[in-house]
């Protein structure tokens, strides 16, 4: 019964979002129709939430007569993972996509701000069509509430790798980011239809791009952290196509966050901002398609059951066709931008957008290239980390070289000499880092440059904060209190990017690893630690059994216990690793338990890693996300002051 | 892979004694794709075939092969698929040229826009504050 209520609610939501689309797009100057659009957006959102709540309910009840529950759940699973199972599969995650889209539509409908009625109601209308498109796909191509008859006695269980708190949060966060980009898309389409993208429009756009970017940042960060501790060999970024699928929208969202500032403050770059908003949503759909269609494993695997993938591609083509078509037709009508000099805040933000957009393009081509070659009959090729590291990393490097200059320049016409003078201490620190790293690492040029850039960003962000502090009056405390939130948020995000860079370079270039065969009582000296295996015991979890290795680790006279596990789930043929991590200020000691050694009874293979400064990667990502949140708070405050 | 090569690989050491050679081997491990796993280099994979492939890398290094020769060796046995760094040829030149082409395209668009753009407007006092 619950499943039928859910299916009915979703179907009703589809009808309402279609009506929301039709009403919103035709509302022009009639208040009553605009009000009806908003009411429908709210009703559609409520129905989607109801449908998704029904899906969670059937997962919690372990109702195996519902096909997705039977395929993805199990009565033995802990409650948290039963709930998370609702979005840990294709059908459920698509329903989540629809629900988030409808919810954002409702929020968009209740925050008109200073926008004209036409722009506002059309954007709500387009958002309704986005929700409707996703609902059509979900209900007809991957119905989440389909029943099985006869119902199986037991479910197949969830992939044990996914039974993890980080993986509970990762998909919803990414979807909030992906779908968050649908709102800038709707606003962009509305602006093209109206032929107007003014500063009030950009003001409405900014919080959505910021929110989407922040969600993507946290979502990618959580996924990366999960890979780090769950996959058992200490990596955190692999240029895997699935990762690239989320990295591309992130890059474009980051560009959009910056270009929207220019459009709001100066009225310039409106056309480019619109184009980015369209591309950002396109990449978000493409990301969903790449992850969900199976096309990445192989073009052939995709061809076995292409219906879902082709339907999603059709949605992508409709959205992008409408977007780019409207852009080509209407963008010339947009108001002429007010100009700016080659040295100005605007021009630095244009360079920022140039770097981020080219990087996104390179990731896109690198990710799709093997598919294109295979589809064209060129055989199987791989495009992996060596390609991306040697192309995207230098691009980001140039971007980072310019980054600290941006905030130091004023709008319209900036003074490069003054900016460089103020940044001189940061430059000196960066050069010192470069030389120090070169000398200490035995002339490894690329990592040394990377570390220097990281230090340049951190010091540059701090100097900006200092410069802004000097503008205030009174005592230090008073100046600090008066500093605008927007200044804090920008510094935090840019310093965070530097912190992340330092961690990423240190971990990638200077990690050490060692494989050892250890029997209880054996000790190994590794990276300044003395690691002793105490014993390996059997352990039972709620739905798995495990071998648990207990270690004693010692450094500078202090000893700590640390354990690592290898888990066996009856529902899965592959064991999973639970690594032992001891974090210190200098990085992580990371132990992974392998198999029992065949020709030495009682001995186990153990992999030891030292990952220097690896925590800075995740701290940096968190700082960037915190910058996004602060900026959102600053925007909300300003809005309240204006009203 | 032939049986003889497998046996040789099984006899090769898991870690080379010379640190410089071992560093070269590690770098190659990160570029060679495990043919059995989902998108993993042999450096990370725990699959048996990856263990054999890592041994094979060390065996070729010990035999005096250059990095390029070792890449070629793997490519002949497993196809282009095994190399995470795709070789430049008629199919992949566009891939390797893509960053430069995209950057050039972007620069052209940038300067096109700048020339078409209006003159710098006047700043309001509030704007020059920021």
Explain what you see.
The complex is a heterodimer of chains A (643) and B (130). By secondary structure, chain A is an alpha+beta fold. Among the domains of chain A are: 164-402, no CATH class; 413-510. Chain A is 65% helix and 11% strand. In chain A, a hairpin with a 2-residue loop joins strand 4 (545-555) and strand 5 (558-568). The longest helix of chain A is centred in the middle third of the chain and has 32 residues, at 199-230. By secondary structure, chain B is mainly α. Chain B has two domains: 3-82, Helicase, Ruva Protein, domain 3, CATH 1.10.8.640; 93-129. Chain B has helices at residues 3-11, 19-31, 48-62, 67-78, 93-116, 125-129. In chain B, helix 1 (3-11) packs across helix 3 and helix 2 (19-31) packs across helix 3. The model of chain B is unreliable at 1-11 and 125-130 (pLDDT under 50). Classes of the chains: A alpha+beta (643), B mainly alpha (130). Chain A binds chain B through residues 231, 233, 235, 238, 240-241, 265-266, 272, 297, 336-342, 344, 350, 354, 357-358, 361-362, 365-366, 369, 373, 378-387, 391, 395, 410-413, 515, 594, and chain B through 14-15, 30-31, 33, 38-39, 41, 44, 46, 79-86, 91-92, 95, 98-99, 102-103, 106-107, 110, 113-114, 117-121, 123, 127-128, 130.
